[in-house]
């Protein structure tokens, strides 16, 4: 077996099977630590065995079986974790799992467990990115702009709280769903964003596995709550963003900004579905929420056949509505970008400069500022801003694009 082929198979299996293996073990053993560590050990065993023995015909089944054995080994070593009767049941339980229905999905159960309201919002997001998204602690730490040890402690405390509070591993009942859904949507959006612009230095710049999984789970939640406007809005937002993925990175490995993308590469099917969801929400007459407004912004972008045809006045108007719901500095930054397109860089730069204290550690702030300074004919300041953005960026395609733009200043 070619070791390179085996490594590629392991990488693909991690993308496709990590969440499934962790979720399966969490359901069986009821312990997130056991599930995560056993899954990690299974993948480590694959790294050792597959280059020698060959890739198994069903990698997912092999990983799940190996992870189950590792979990049982751990339980044997730590016999105090379970009584002997429970242990015997686990060791002899060879019955196949019952078939899952359309909503009875292990990964959906895992998300609702990780997103329990007993946990702080940041802990919910971090735990879901780790256990469902399969991101490493360094990747999650970069996304939160915190140090790796602090993020590791946050994830450990979250798992400990789930165990101590005996948070059930299940999809909530119908009456509990509305109160739980806000946190779940926030997590799914962050998982999608990590896939659309991956922060890991050794990962693909766009991780289609994460975007596809976020969309799949959001579809499941929409089946649970078909009348929820924000669920529909988030799904529309994901679809309209995912539609542009084929044009997102150039053959040279550089990020391609929205205005320069080949729109012929965009997925018409995803755009049509996203637009249909946006129109349905507008027709409902209910005031839109955050995700519905963001979806509407993306609907304006994908409605333009050419970047020059973009209705920037409508984009700014939508952001004006959004800032009344979400006063985060990132929303203000995105609004300023639209203002620059509508009224020019001289109108947007003062708005952006007021955000510096809040966004000084955010690469997109410095990248945006660099572009505006470039357009204003201030190359020295623009170069400094590009350097700062490159130092903070974690996506390889984005770093390549920013470096190209900075070097073009010469």
From TrEMBL:
Transmembrane domains' residue ranges: none
Lineage: Bacteria, Bacillati, Actinomycetota, Actinomycetes, Micrococcales
GO MF, one example: DNA-binding transcription factor activity
Ranges in a coiled coil: none
Organism per entry: Agromyces cerinus subsp. cerinus
Residue ranges constituting the RNA polymerase sigma-70 region domain according to the UniProt record: 17-80
Record-level GO BP terms: DNA-templated transcription initiation
Domain DUF6596, first and last residues per copy: 180-280
The protein's name in its UniProt record: RNA polymerase, sigma subunit, ECF family
């Amino acid at each position: 077996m070619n070791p390179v082929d085996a490594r590629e198979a392991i990488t693909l299996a991690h993308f496709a099977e990590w969440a499934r293996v962790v979720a399966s073990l969490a359901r069986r053993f009821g312990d997130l630590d056991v599930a995560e560590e056993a899954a990690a050990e299974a993948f480590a065993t694959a790294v050792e065995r597959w280059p020698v023995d060959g890739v198994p015909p069903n990698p997912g089944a092999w990983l799940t079986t190996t992870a189950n054995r590792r979990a049982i080994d751990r339980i044997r070593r730590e016999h105090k974790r379970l009584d002997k009767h429970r242990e015997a049941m686990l060791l002899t339980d060879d019955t196949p799992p019952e078939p899952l229905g359309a909503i009875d999905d292990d990964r959906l159960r895992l998300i609702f467990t990780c997103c329990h309201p007993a946990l702080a919002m940041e802990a919910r997001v971090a735990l879901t990115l780790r256990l469902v998204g399969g991101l490493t602690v360094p990747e999650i730490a970069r996304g939160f702009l915190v140090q790796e040890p602090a993020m590791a402690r946050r994830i450990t405390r979250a798992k400990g709280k789930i165990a101590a509070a005996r948070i059930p591993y299940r999809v909530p009942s119908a009456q509990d769903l509305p109160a739980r859904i806000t946190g779940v949507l926030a997590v799914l959006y962050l998982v999608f964003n990590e896939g659309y612009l991956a922060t890991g230095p050794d990962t693909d710049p766009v991780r289609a596995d994460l975007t596809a999984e976020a969309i799949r789970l959001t579809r499941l939640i929409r089946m649970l709550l078909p009348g929820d406007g924000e669920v529909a809005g988030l799904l529309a937002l994901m679809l309209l963003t995912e539609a542009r993925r084929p044009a997102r990175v150039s053959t040279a490995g550089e990020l391609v900004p929205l205005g320069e993308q080949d729109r012929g590469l965009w997925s018409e099917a995803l755009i049509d579905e996203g637009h249909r969801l946006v129109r349905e929400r507008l027709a409902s007459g209910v005031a839109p929420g955050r995700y519905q407004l963001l979806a509407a912004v993306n609907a304006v972008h994908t409605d333009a056949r050419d970047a020059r045809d973009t209705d920037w006045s409508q984009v700014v108007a939508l952001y004006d509505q959004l800032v009344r719901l979400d006063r985060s500095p990132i929303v203000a930054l995105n609004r300023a970008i639209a203002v620059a397109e509508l009224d020019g860089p001289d109108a947007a730069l003062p708005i952006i400069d007021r955000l510096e204290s809040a966004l000084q550690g955010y690469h997109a702030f410095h990248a945006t500022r660099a572009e505006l300074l470039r357009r204003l004919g201030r190359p020295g300041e623009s170069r400094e801003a590009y350097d700062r953005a490159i130092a903070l960026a974690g996506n390889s395609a984005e770093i390549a694009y920013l470096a190209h733009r900075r070097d073009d200043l010469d």
